[in-house]
């Protein structure tokens, strides 16, 4: 499964390079709105690639085998202390970020969707935000319940 995600990540790297090349070579023929939409497309591809990297590395670390990167100077900070709950929170927040980019793209160029489509895009975005908040809150409750009483003594939330 992780090999499949790595293949998709490679496809996203190709797509990013293709879109970047297209944007650079046609920049003189584009107005500001089209340039901004092109930049949003690049940001969208990067955010999805980051999501794939988080799932690949975090999933492997959490469910298969710990990566031995303790002495490696470029180890991602989040990797060493990310449990399954923390990974869910990061994934939910990444989905909210990706949805935000799509919503911003719709507001910049609303001609591709009618009002009904825009309404559903906003509803889906709000649902993702509420879901991310619920996941984060649940994860916080679970983490607080696993702390020992001596660790929380004298600590006021």
UniProtKB/TrEMBL annotation:
Q: Where are the transmembrane segments?
A: 34-57, 91-108, 120-138
Q: What is its main location?
A: membrane
Q: Which UniProt keywords apply?
A: Cell membrane, Membrane, Transmembrane, Transmembrane helix
Task: Give a Gene Ontology cellular component term annotated to this protein.
Answer: plasma membrane
What is its subcellular localisation?
Cell membrane
What is the membrane topology listed in the Swiss-Prot or TrEMBL record? Multi-pass membrane protein
Pfam families annotated for this entry? UPF0114 (PF03350)
Top-level lineage group: Bacteria
Q: In which family does this protein belong, per the annotation?
A: Belongs to the UPF0114 family.
Q: What is this protein called?
A: UPF0114 protein LDG_7163
């Amino acid at each position: 499964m992780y090999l499949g995600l790595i293949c998709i990540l490679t496809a996203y790297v190709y797509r990013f390079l293709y879109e970047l090349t297209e944007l650079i070579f046609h920049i003189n023929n584009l107005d500001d709105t089209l340039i901004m939409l092109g930049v949003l497309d690049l940001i969208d591809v990067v955010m999805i690639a980051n999501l794939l990297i988080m799932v690949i590395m975090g999933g492997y670390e959490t469910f298969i085998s710990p990566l031995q990167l303790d002495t490696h100077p470029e180890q991602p900070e989040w990797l060493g202390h990310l449990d399954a709950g923390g990974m869910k929170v990061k994934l939910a927040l990444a989905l909210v970020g990706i949805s935000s980019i799509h919503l911003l793209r719709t507001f910049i160029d609303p001609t591709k969707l009618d009002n009904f489509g825009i309404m559903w895009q906003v509803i889906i975005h709000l649902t993702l935000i509420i879901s991310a908040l619920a996941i984060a809150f649940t994860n916080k409750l679970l983490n607080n319940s696993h702390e020992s009483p001596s660790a929380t003594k004298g600590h006021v939330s």
